[in-house]
UniProtKB/TrEMBL annotation:
Keyword hit for Disulfide bond: no
Name this protein carries in UniProt: Biotin synthase auxiliary protein
Homology family: Belongs to the BsaP family.
Cofactor(s) needed: iron-sulfur cluster
Pfam families from the UniProt entry: BsaP
Record-annotated Biotin synthase auxiliary protein C-terminal domain positions: 41-63
Role played: Required for the activity of the biotin synthase BioB.
InterPro entries: BsaP_C
Length: 66
């Protein structure tokens, strides 16, 4: 499933410019909203990265997969 919502503000990617979400600093921030349903996620930041969990869609992590 493709992302339908902004992971920083939770608004639809189809609408709005998201100027505050596209500044270079946000590239370093963990996601706060689920990209599939826009629910607020539980986020834990560690020295080596971050883990985020959506109550409906499961976990996301900063670790590379594969």
């Amino acid at each position: 499933m493709t992302a339908a919502f902004c992971v920083h503000c939770g608004q639809s990617l189809a609408g709005g410019e998201h100027l505050g979400c596209r500044v270079p600093r946000t590239a370093l921030e963990p996601p706060r909203f689920c990209p599939q349903c826009a629910r607020r996620m539980v986020v834990q930041v560690t020295p080596t990265g971050w883990d985020a969990r959506c109550s409906r869609h499961g976990a996301y992590t900063s670790e590379p997969t594969g």
